[in-house]
């Protein structure tokens, strides 16, 4: 049976796996589903139409599944889907989506450090790190292994590519392609995220290809169209996972630009 502190409030209808732990004064809403091994600490809240997978940890005073703060909300059933092995530290928040039958989505193995915020309709991948006091505006997409530095914020509808980084205290108003590092207020691309690539066992050749892409996109004075064409002309454009990822990201529709 779930291990539930007697002061916790579990609303009728909530679905808890057998080994879930719920701490003192925690609140679990009626439409919540918690997967095996999940731990909800004291004074934490999981509410709304929220489905959480296995082995997640929600620390004290976090609020997961809050109603969207988008003024376009007109009612209907909106939700939040969370995968496995995520950590939501103290005072973190993650909101439901806005339109009927839509979801804010969070993948697996992510770390949300204290006071970080995932707004309505965001899509967060896997192995993402959001440092303390970071915030995603609505409809932001953050791909796998990206890092958001302390006190940084991302504008609505912006995209963050895999293995990239937004530096601390930065204002992210443009898309950040995969493997790139952006910093400043407003943030501008400054280099590649070499350390992240090294930590994830990318080869020196792959790191050099990422740097080649950085120079092609940001240092040659090319338009986006011509920068993509230049990358596609590289001999390894069809074989390198680095160049393929950057080219695919650049070709996707963007509401914010690079």
From TrEMBL:
The UniProt record lists the keyword Phosphoprotein: no
InterPro entries from the UniProt entry: Acetyltransf_C, Acetyltransf_C_sf, Hexapep, Lipid_A_LpxA, Trimer_LpxA-like_sf
UDP N-acetylglucosamine O-acyltransferase C-terminal domain span: 175-257
Domain of life, per lineage: Bacteria
Pfam families given in the database record: Acetyltransf_11, Hexapep
UniProt keyword Acyltransferase, yes or no: yes
Gene3D superfamilies in alphabetical order: Hexapeptide repeat proteins, Udp N-acetylglucosamine O-acyltransferase, C-terminal domain
An example Gene Ontology molecular-function term: acyl-[acyl-carrier-protein]-UDP-N-acetylglucosamine O-acyltransferase activity
Keywords associated with the record: Acyltransferase, Lipid A biosynthesis, Lipid biosynthesis, Lipid metabolism, Transferase
NCBIfam families linked: lipid_A_lpxA, PRK05289.1
Cited PANTHER family: ACYL-[ACYL-CARRIER-PROTEIN]--UDP-N-ACETYLGLUCOSAMINE O-ACYLTRANSFERASE, ACYL-[ACYL-CARRIER-PROTEIN]--UDP-N-ACETYLGLUCOSAMINE O-ACYLTRANSFERASE, MITOCHONDRIAL-RELATED
Protein name per the record: Acyl-ACP--UDP-N-acetylglucosamine O-acyltransferase
Protein source organism: Intestinicryptomonas porci
